[in-house]
Structure formats: C-alpha cells, structure tokens
TrEMBL record:
It comes from the Bacteria. It comes from [Mycobacterium] kokjensenii. This is Ester cyclase. Pfam families: SnoaL. SUPFAM superfamilies: NTF2-like.
Length: 184
C-alpha cells in the first residue's frame, strides 16, 4: 500500500512521466505492442460506461474497437500532474467517427472531448491501471450534432445512436461498483 502523503523522488516522477508520455505517443501511432509493454498486466477502467478491459486480449479488443470507430484518434495534452501513486493527465481526445462505436453507427463527425486519465502505479512502480473519466454526452452531442434533425431521413441514425449509447451503458462492471470506502 502506497503512503498517500509520500510523494516519490523526482527521479521516480520523471520515469513515470516518461512512461505515460510514451504510452500516449504509442497509442497515437497504434503500436499496440509498445503500449501494452507499459503494463505488466494491461488494465483499463472506462468510468463513464463502467466497463473494465483486463488483460492483453480485452485491451487489444478495446484498442481495435475504438480505432475502428475513430481511425485518426489523437490526443492534445492539457496538463500532467503527479500524486503519490499516479500520474494524472488532462487531455483532449480527438477523432473522426468513421466506424461504429459499439452499436452507435458512424456519423462522419469530428469530436474533441475533454478527458482525464489516472495512470496508477503500485509500490514497485509498475503501471497497474489506466482509469479514464469523461462526459459521454459531450462526445455524443458532437457525434450527432451535425445531423440535420429536421430531415426525417436522419431520424433512424439518431435513434440508432441513442440506442447505442444506452447499450454502451449496459451492465456495470462490479469491480467499479463494489469499491471500499477510503481509509482516511
């Protein structure tokens, strides 16, 4: 257990920061082997959808699905902060919706969504989780915002988009619900 008041040395913080920045860079390059190499065991928690992608196969599936939806996905880092056990990155996620996002059909719209990601490290300085927070309605509004709602031909697309959003928020992963209270 990491002491929440003990900030690691500058050397450790620099090493964590380099690993996180390499992780971001390799995601944009879509070099999944290099991204996965930043973890001893890949683990993503997507808080808005309460989903977990755990292990190499599940995380590769997450990468595949998100890059089918947004093949040009990129990041603009806003800020990077350190804590006792994490690197916290605020960033813009950008991409053009050219493929299905779950069951949300492609709209061809571009999005720019503000996000935060917590890169959590264990006591041995291993990256153990990337936990991502964002407002999914902000993204959906951008993806569907360019659709002319006055044209009835577009209504099926919007309806499929809304149904897709509901489907994405299906059964929450119990690992994200059954959290112990903080030991303060």
């Amino acid at each position: 257990m990491t002491d929440r008041y003990a900030i690691p040395s500058a050397e450790v913080l620099r090493a964590r920061e380099k690993l996180v920045l390499d992780h971001f860079h390799d995601e944009v390059r879509q070099d999944w082997d290099d991204v996965l190499a930043t973890f001893p065991h890949p683990h993503y928690e997507i808080i808005p959808t309460l989903t977990v992608h755990d292990g190499d196969d599940e995380v590769r599936g997450y990468y595949r699905d998100t890059r089918v939806a947004f093949p040009d996905q990129d990041h603009e880092i806003i800020a990077l902060r350190h804590s006792a056990d994490a690197v916290i990155v605020e960033f813009w996620l950008l991409g053009t919706h050219l493929g299905p996002l779950g069951t949300i059909p492609p709209t061809g719209a571009r999005h720019r969504t503000r996000m935060s990601a917590y890169f959590v490290f264990d006591e041995n300085e291993n990256l153990v989780s990337e936990r991502i927070y964002f407002d999914s309605l902000t993204m959906l509004k951008q993806l569907l915002g360019g659709v002319n709602l006055r044209d009835p031909r577009n209504w099926p697309l919007v309806l499929r988009g809304l149904r897709g959003l509901l489907a994405m928020s299906g059964q929450p992963d119990p690992r994200l619900l059954n959290t112990p209270p903080a030991d303060l």
